[in-house]
Amino acid sequence: MTAETQAPIIIFENADKAVEVRLDTDRETVWLTQEQMTVIFDVQKAAVSKHLKNIYQDGELEREATVSILETVRTEGKRQVIRQIEHYNLDAIISVGYRVNSRRAVQFRQWATRVLREHLTQGWTLNRQRFEENARELEAALALVRKAAQSPALDAGSGRGLVDIVSRYAQTFLLLQRYDEGLLTEPRAQPGGSLPTLEQARAALDSLKSELMARGEATDLFARDRGDGLASLLGNLDQSVFGEPAYPSVESKAAHLLYFVIKNHPFSDGNKRSAAFLFVDFLHRNGRLLNAAGEPVINDVGLAALTLLVAESDAAHKETMIRLIMNMLAGTHNGKR
Questions:
Q1: Within a domain: residue 299?
Q2: Residue 240 sits in which domain range?
Q3: Distance between CA 233 and CA 98 in Å, rounded?
Q4: How many other CB atoms sit within 10 Å of the CB of residue 221?
Q5: What is the pLDDT of residues 228-244, one digit of tens each?
Q6: What pLDDT does residue 87 have?
Q7: Which SS3 state, helix, strand or coil, does residue 251 take?
Q8: At what angle do helices 300-312 and 156-180 cross, to 10 degrees?
Q9: For residues 97 and 324, what is the distance between their CA atoms, to the nearest angstrom?
């Protein structure tokens, strides 16, 4: 649970009651305090607290995933003070609602779903704050490029690869701005994507290791497993959430595969080279190594630059990096540069 900035406020009206509801379009949910839930469901606060306690004790929901501490302006006497108060997301709200009054819970869920759909698909909440957040994300991506460009491991050729990546990213960003008024988001992606089995990935890495060792470019530590890191990584990429793939597209799987192998260090040595190899191998397995014009979606220099870019990136910029890689792959697949 972390303190967060205030989300946009919307109004939920039920009969003679009106409640200010925090809308969070990034997480596709809404947030309410316990006091607000008492108004919506017409119960005492003790009842809401009891139900929430039971919900978490029973394992119906995870507390960490459904609670955030948000700053709230409250009137106390003649003063207005800022307090940090626990807010509960839509999953927790509905769980409480089903335990006290399912009809009202359904009404609230219908209202919340409609509002979320309107804001997410029709862009009714686009405002200056959203544009500023967008600009900060672009600045973060460019800052990563500048940082990587200063790396001693980056030669002039790799620098040209970085320029290529930046130009692709910038063009993708402008395209998204034209169609979505400046909102950087995941691109239209190709559903599916077949990941290698652990045995296939291990065999491919062993073959690469033999070649590199024969050329004196690697030692026996190269791509040697650290525990079950590679198995866990591939398992996580292939997992489902509520029956749907957690990473539903070729672009998403490829981007996360590259990122996780570099950042999670599943091998004793050669994580960046192994990541780049598995990334290319995955694209090849899924017929995405070449673009619509029959050209490689990324050349050796560009791949080296992209790998360094991920390695140099801060963990806080993970989503920026993932979107950058996905947009690059989607753009080349559609023949755009």
A1: yes
A2: 198-330
A3: 37
A4: 11
A5: 999 999 999 999 888 88
A6: 92
A7: helix
A8: 80
A9: 40
